[in-house]
Structures are given as structure tokens and as C-alpha cells.
Amino acid sequence: MDTDAIARLEALAGPQGEAVFAAITAGLDGAPYTDAAALRLGTALRRTFPAELVAEALTQTALRGRAATKFDRAGEMLLTRAGWEQASPEIVARHTAARLPGRVADLCCGIGGDLLALAPGREVLAVDRDPVHLWLAEHNARAYGGAPSMLLADVRDVDLRGFDAVFVDPARRSGGGRMRTGESEPPLQWCVGLPVPVGIKAAPGVDHAVAPPGWELEFVAVERELKEAVLWSPGLAGVRARATILPGGDSLVATPGEPVEVRDPGRFLLDPNPAVTRAGAVEDLARLTRTWKIDERIAFLSADTRVTTPFARTLEVIDSGPWDQKRLPRKLRDLDIGAVDIRRRGLAGDVDALHRTLKLQGSRRATLVMTRVRDKPWGLVCL
């Protein structure tokens, strides 16, 4: 079965496959790729090309279109749906690759989402026990100018002597779906025991306790979307916990410091980036921006003057007071609010049901924050 799959991929990457892709591009003529377009193109192309090749090329065209949000060269790659969905975005892969020195082994390389950033300009060994993944990883790395060595093997059997660093992305899905939190293949315990400096990709919700003493846990976000966590071994670690915000590469480190003041909200509300929250660096952000907390346990900060920082978005508070859902619709109408984005943190409530009850008609759009202030239910209307 793997032999047949690889033969189909080789056909797609060969001259006839290139001709089919070129014909699809010409047939779309800049229009979006839709189900109707696929049906029209498939009917026309099967008059010239083998039906199976056309079907494979149309599938890849759809995957490339979706993967374009992650990869600059998605149009040159060959993909699987699960592979591109689970792969790191290219911008994250490049950030991770920059932290790995010298000769690197990429274990559990999958379809090459990290390999495409690791391989160009250096010696890299890519390892996977799935021959289809290994073929795809090499093809995709070469689309980015890399020339990695490829090894079909269980990563636990690989001789890592002579490598300066290892990157490993253990599988967190099995044939039955997503594994339980903390489980992976190979297990995290095996990954942290590797005899060379290592970076281990983990889910953004990873427990801080899984990082052994001396290791760093880095939470990486692209703008405000938290993408992944990486565990760095002592040979690569710099701190205990860190939030990194891309594309700027801004980094905030969680360190012990003076307690942050807790008091009522001011004119502005700071909503920390999810990477900052997960890194446990909210108080570090408060000290950096000279802001205060509005509740001991809630990850919102406040200020009386506007704060500009890559680590949070700043909202202007136009109304603040104890949470009163019965009076909320009237309050929003008085403020000329016609649409709201609802942020709920630390306060229970059905956001969808609340949306349905508001029936707003004003001219302004606002953010409605459901939260707690000094452990009391609180609502803020922000622009």
C-alpha cells in the first residue's frame, strides 16, 4: 500500500503531474478553487490525463490552497490533510530552527513542516517510520532549497552520536484520534532522556510540570494566536518559561519579582497575549508596562494611560461596573453599541445566549468583557 501511495506521489511530482497542475492553474484563471470548479476541471482534464492522476492533483490543489495560510511555498508542496493541519506554521518552524545549532536530527519529521526550515544551509537527518511521510518530507524540504538525509526507522533506534542537537515532534494522535493530555509517541519521558541538546514540540496546553529542572518551556504565538509550546533542554534553554510573539520575535520571560498591585480598572484594559498567560508572565508584563491587576487570579491588567506593547492588546474602557446582565441591554443601547465581541474570563455565563438577548442596533462596535474585579463579578465595555 505504501509502495502504491509513493508511486502516485512520484507521478504527481513528475512531468505529467506538473502538466496536470499547470492545466488546473490555467483552468482556474485566478478564480477560487471550489467544488464546482473541481467538478468542471476534473471532467475536462480526464479527457487528456489519467483519471487517477487528475483526482490526486485536484486533491493536492485543495490541500495547497488551505495550507497557504501556513506555508509560503504551499503551491510547490505535496501534502496530506492530517500532515498540514498538525504541522507548525512556517514562521514558527523558522523561529524554532534558529535556536538549534549545527548538525541536527529531525525525529518524527512527518511531512516536513519543521524540516523545510531546518534543512536549508546545514546538514540534517530526517527520521520517520512512515515511508509516505518520509517521501513527502524530503520533497517539501527540497521545495525550500534543503537537501536533508532521510532515514526510514523508529526514532528510538537512531544513533545520535555526532549530532549537535535534536528536534522531536512526538505524535499526539493515534489511529483512534487524539491521545490523552500528556501522552505521546514516543513518550515525553523518552524525549527528555535523549543524550544530546533537544527541542521537543508540545501542545500549547502542556503542563509546566512536565519540564524537568533546568529546562525551558517556550510558548509561541503568531500575533494573538497561540500555536505551540517547545521544551528546550539545558543545552539550549535560557530561562524557565518564556512567551515569544511572532512575527516580531518579541520575548517576555517569566521571572520572580515584586508583587503587582491589585485595584479597580482604570481607563484602559490590557488583554495579555495567550502566550504570555500560558508562560505565567502576566505579572512580568505588569511590571514592564507599569500597569496593575484588576483581580488576583484574572489575567487582565489596567492602566490610566494607553499602553502599546507587543505582549497585549489595549482596550479603552468606556463603562465599568459590577456585572448586571438584566440592565446590560439598556446600557449598551445608551452607549450606541450595535455589535459586541464578548470576552469571558473568570465569570461563568453562556456567551451565545447572551448574544441572542442583546438585540443591539447602535452604530459602534465594542468588546464586552465578563470578568471579576477583586473577586466580584464585573463587566467592562471597551472600544
From TrEMBL:
GO terms for molecular function: methyltransferase activity. The keyword Protein biosynthesis does not apply. One of its GO terms (biological process) is methylation. CDD domains: AdoMet_MTases. Pfam families: Methyltransf_15, Thump_like. It comes from the Bacteria. InterPro entries: RNA_cap_Gua-N2-MeTrfase, SAM-dependent_MTases_sf, Thump-like. The keyword Methyltransferase applies. Keywords: Methyltransferase, Transferase. Gene3D superfamilies: Vaccinia Virus protein VP39. Residues 312-382 form the THUMP-like domain. PANTHER family: S-ADENOSYLMETHIONINE-DEPENDENT METHYLTRANSFERASE RELATED, TRIMETHYLGUANOSINE SYNTHASE. This is Class I SAM-dependent methyltransferase.
